Fold this sequence. Notes:
By secondary structure, the chain is an alpha+beta fold. Helices cover 12% and strands 29% of the residues. The strands form 3 sheets. It has a 4-stranded mixed beta sheet with strand order 2-1-6-5, with helices on one face. Strands 3-4 form a two-stranded antiparallel sheet. A two-stranded antiparallel sheet has the order 7-8. Strand 3 and strand 4 (68-71) form a beta hairpin. The protein is globular and about 55 Å long. The two termini are 25 Å apart.
Amino acid sequence: MTAPAQPASGAAEDWLAALRFDDQGLIPAIAQDAKTGTVLMMAWMNADAVRETVRTGRAVYYSRSRARLWRKGEESGHVQQVHDIRLDCDGDVLLLKITQIGGIACHTGRERCFYRSLDLDGDAPAWTVQDPVLKDPGTIYGHSHAHPHPGGH
């Protein structure tokens, strides 16, 4: 996706009909770093979010908590430039190959949302933080909310 496509409505949106949205009209979308292959985050998209992502070349998701489109980076400035969109074999999951502007995809100030791993070596399984905070969320968002972004994922 080197240049944003300009799909028209109607028959030109046959590509959109291939997507299998859930009963709430949503499809999971995984954002992956286009260069490193690192999985950065997962969020939800509705048809309008998919259309706008294709039209603009920037990731747009659907915020379940705010019930509206969420343009990634609208609060933080950490936008995602989309290079490629892949559809899985069942048609019910999207993979966005992106460049993460600013290097931070997670609202916690980390590179990725998948920063905890399950440690199975102790007496009982426990989640262990693996990735450092790159920037304080209070600095990014200008407030101290525990979950400041509108993704609701």
